[in-house]
Design brief:
- The complex is a heterodimer.
- Chain A is mainly alpha-helical.
- Chain A has two domains: 95 residues, RNA polymerase sigma factor, region 2, helix turn helix motif (Rna Polymerase Sigma Factor, Chain: A); 85 residues, Winged helix-like DNA-binding domain superfamily/Winged helix DNA-binding domain (Arc Repressor Mutant, subunit A, Orthogonal Bundle).
- Helices cover 70% and strands 0% of the residues of chain A.
- The relative contact order of chain A is 0.09.
- Chain B has two domains: 49 residues, no CATH class; 135 residues, no CATH class.
- Chain B has eight helices and two strands; from the N terminus they run H-H-H-H-H-E-E-H-H-H.
- Chain B is 57% helix and 2% strand.
- By secondary structure, chain B is mostly helical.
- Classes of the chains: A mainly alpha, B mainly alpha.
- Chains A and B meet through helix 2, helix 3, helix 4, helix 6 and helix 8 of A and helix 4 and helix 5 of B.
Chain lengths: 182, 202
């Protein structure tokens, strides 16, 4: 166990007893990682800021139930994922991007800067349009670099289901962006 | 394809991040030469690797820790204010619904509950502070509770300010804490299960 883990463990213990300063230290330790994760999921800075704050609030209010079976970061990420999914659900389908609706760009000169930017934009729109769980698996795997076991832990599902979500997401991007049959 | 999955595909991320030893890198590179599928997956991985996200304004991280604890403190104070008059109403509804679910026979539908018992989504989900803990109660999942009560959760009619926010199973919450369990047990003791059942069935 590293000294940082021990320190975090102490902070968690104190925060569970209602020590606000200890929880503030935990926020300082994880706020950047949580913000980045939520920024990836939401695709929007303002949303990510709001979601980060409400995830920490929920985490603090639920500290009594954190038993330390997973790492504190995993616990936070799990709350953040659910906070984001609730937000998506509450906003309804209006803002969803349908993969089928993203235009296919063809005949662009690959050396053309504008065309390249358009391609990039199209790629991220496709990512944005993925179903929540697939996007979650993709971000946890590719940005956090988590092994599938840990992806599953955050997602609250089996490792097989986490793998399936990831591979479905990759498959969709392959077929929609690179025109490859799945 | 199956060999991709088993031998190479799971190594692509580590390959892209330069985490493989020479022999493993060589293995991946040899595979990539003859597998367009994995090559495309590597391109996707690299798209993610190369993207920078916008940073929030500097004040955000500076003020966030204090903001979080201040917000929690404010909610706890509000909860304390509401605790006495409203707590019994909200908890009675929860206990009644749980007891109803524990009864043998077909699940009772929301219209059978009578006007005293029902749930609404609260505007402030933390007003009660324990609502997220109602996930497993004697093996009853909150999803079952929601299904039984129906999607159209009605308003509590006893002028109680307290409302319950039902959070589906799997929303990051595991099971009732010992503290919540104790509150439920106290309530059951105070209210007498017979009385609760009678009210539920009326």
């Amino acid at each position: 166990m590293t000294s940082q883990t021990t320190h975090e463990g102490e902070l968690v213990k104190r925060a569970r007893k209602g020590d606000a300063k200890a929880f503030e230290d935990l926020v300082r330790m994880h706020q950047r990682a949580l913000y980045r994760y939520l920024c990836w999921l939401s695709g929007d800075t303002e949303d990510a800021m709001e979601l980060t704050q409400s995830s920490f609030v929920k985490a603090y209010l639920s500290m009594g139930r954190f038993r330390g079976e997973s790492s504190f970061k995993t616990y936070l990420f799990r709350i953040a994922s659910n906070t984001w999914k609730n937000c998506v659900r509450d906003r309804g389908r209006r803002q969803n991007v349908n993969i089928e609706d993203v235009p296919v760009l063809s005949g662009n000169n690959p050396h053309d800067e504008v065309a390249r930017e358009q391609e990039q934009e199209r790629f991220w729109k496709l990512v944005e349009g993925l179903p929540a769980r697939q996007k979650e698996a993709l971000v946890l795997r590719l940005k956090e670099g988590y092994p599938f076991e840990k992806v599953a832990e955050v997602m609250g599902c089996s490792t097989g289901a986490a793998k399936a979500s990831y591979h479905h997401a990759v498959g969709k991007l392959k077929s929609s962006f690179y025109g490859e049959d799945q | 394809m199956s060999s991709c999955r088993e031998n190479c595909r799971d190594m692509l991320l580590d390959y892209a991040r330069g985490r493989l030893v020479h022999e493993e890198s060589q293995l991946v590179e040899n595979h990539l030469e003859r597998c367009p599928d994995c090559l495309i997956e590597l391109k996707i991985i690299r798209q993610f690797e190369s993207r920078d996200l916008p940073e929030p304004p500097p004040w955000f991280f500076n003020s966030l820790p204090e903001k979080v604890t201040a917000q929690v403190e404010e909610r706890r104070k509000k909860r304390m204010r509401w605790m006495v008059p409203a707590w019994a109403g909200g908890m009675a509804a929860a206990v009644a619904a749980v007891l109803m679910l524990l009864q043998p026979g077909p699940p009772t539908r929301v219209e059978d509950l009578g006007s005293d018992y029902s749930f609404v989504r609260t505007e402030d989900p933390f007003s009660l502070g324990i609502e997220e803990e109602l996930l497993h109660v004697s093996g009853v999942f909150i999803n079952d509770l929601i299904q039984t009560l129906g999607p159209d959760l009605r308003e509590v009619k006893d002028d109680s300010l307290i409302t319950m926010d039902l959070i589906p199973e799997g929303d990051g919450y595991e099971s009732m804490s010992e503290e919540t369990m104790r509150i439920f047990e106290d309530l059951l003791e105070k209210m007498a299960p017979e009385r609760v059942r009678k009210k539920v069935m009326s």
